[in-house]
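Private note to self, pasted from the team thread so I don't lose it. Backbone tokens:
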């Protein structure tokens, strides 16, 4: 199957600024001397003209005084397929990417096939896990409002209140295991991210040993978790891996590099993993990253990745980079389609993340803005826990490996009818009908 690369919107945390370029780092420039709105807007505009991947498409005349904030201006400057260029709070961004922390309740929800708002993922060591909320549970009400009232008023995005530590949220939860409805009050707090909550060795129906792990984030603390998982795989002679990235919206490219090194490094040390490509101002900075061999590297030759429309950015970068070197099969649904990435530019306690590069794999595949197609279709089975071999997507993956490539093809939606999917997290971000357009902790 011919693949195209979705330039991963994975982040590179290189703080950049506005005026003078640094001779040692062409992407490092000084921030504005003043932090009034006009100065901030001018900084954003200057950076976009210089470094934005599609800078040649920017309007010639932009009135910076027409914008009340750099955040509002940057949303108007996005071109074409770009829905990711943004301005973020620096402290929140640093906490997330470098320290592996975020504020919230610690669970994600999505519509099940029964149209119920069900828990799809619960973060370890979170306020939600502390009160035994689990995947498959149904949210019947929030803060005194029923799910039906929240649907009618389209108020799921606001009912949780500010996304600040100490905010109490009362939930009416119907537990999957018992059918009982429980009312609990939990408090938003800083949560230490566990990127790989499950890493195990499962057995396919024909008795083969398969390494499986869920990877929910690409943040700095993920690296040690990856090392631990692959150490186990190496000790058990694993060469077939199922990587569950159905909810992974991306993150740091350095983590993607580590994942590739651990998955392929034993057999492909020194081979090209991916290549950065910048705008016409910086073609001399285009460079390739090579696969490296680490002490825990394996040589996976059969790789199944569990995917959905929430699989974006660094997740897609890893998938696309693996295609030339292994038998890679996508099970689930098509990915979200984010084949571009950002460098960060620091100013006034904020970070500007313009799309600054595209990424190609070793054979030049790129620009998969429509997503990477799934080879095998499988539903996200909210009635089984993640990592359970009976869970729909994992069961389909194991069945594919057992049947030597037999699986259900991806169904095509009827013309003009969008897929019925809505995902939202109870961490206070904006609710949008299409999860790949969210600008929150899962879509970096």
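Design output:
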């Amino acid at each position: 199957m011919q693949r195209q690369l979705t330039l991963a919107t994975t982040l590179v945390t290189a703080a950049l600024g506005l005026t003078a370029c640094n001779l040692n780092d062409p992407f490092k420039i000084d921030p504005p001397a003043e932090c009034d709105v006009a100065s901030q807007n001018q900084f954003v505009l200057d950076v976009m003209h210089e470094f934005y991947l599609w800078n040649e498409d920017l309007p010639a005349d932009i009135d910076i005084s027409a914008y009340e904030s750099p955040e509002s201006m940057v949303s108007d400057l996005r071109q074409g397929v770009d829905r990711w260029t943004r301005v973020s709070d620096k402290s929140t961004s640093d906490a997330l990417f470098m320290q592996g922390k975020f504020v919230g309740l610690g669970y994600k929800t999505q519509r099940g096939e029964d149209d119920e708002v069900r828990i799809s993922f619960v973060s370890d060591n979170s306020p939600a896990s502390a009160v035994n909320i689990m995947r498959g549970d149904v949210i019947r009400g929030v803060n005194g409002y029923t799910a039906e009232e929240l649907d009618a008023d389209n108020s799921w995005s606001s009912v949780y209140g500010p996304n600040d530590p100490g905010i109490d949220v009362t939930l009416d939860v119907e537990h999957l295991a018992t059918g009982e409805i429980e009312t609990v009050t939990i408090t938003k707090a800083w949560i230490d991210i566990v990127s790989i909550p499950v890493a195990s060795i499962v057995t396919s129906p024909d008795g083969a040993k398969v390494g499986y792990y869920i990877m929910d984030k690409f943040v700095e603390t993920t690296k040690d978790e990856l090392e631990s998982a692959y150490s186990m795989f190496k000790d058990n002679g694993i060469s077939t891996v199922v990587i569950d990235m159905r909810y992974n919206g991306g993150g740091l490219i350095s983590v993607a590099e580590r994942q590739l090194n651990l998955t392929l490094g034993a057999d492909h040390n020194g081979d090209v993993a991916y290549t950065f490509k910048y705008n016409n101002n910086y073609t001399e900075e285009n460079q390739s990253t090579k696969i490296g061999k680490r002490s825990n590297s394996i040589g996976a030759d059969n790789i199944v990745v569990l995917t959905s429309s929430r699989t974006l950015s660094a997740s897609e970068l890893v998938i696309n980079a693996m295609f030339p070197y292994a038998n890679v099969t996508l099970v689930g649904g098509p990915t979200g389609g984010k084949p571009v990435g950002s460098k960060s530019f620091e100013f006034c306690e904020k970070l500007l993340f313009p799309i600054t590069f595209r990424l190609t794999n070793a054979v030049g595949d790129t620009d998969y803005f429509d997503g990477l197609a799934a080879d095998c279709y499988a539903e996200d089975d909210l009635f089984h826990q993640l990592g359970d071999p009976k869970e729909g997507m994992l069961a389909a993956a194991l069945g594919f490996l057992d049947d030597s490539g037999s699986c259900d093809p991806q169904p095509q939606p009827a013309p003009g009818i969008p897929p019925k999917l809505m995902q939202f997290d109870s961490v206070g971000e904006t609710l949008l009908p299409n999860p790949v357009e969210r600008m929150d902790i899962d879509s970096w």
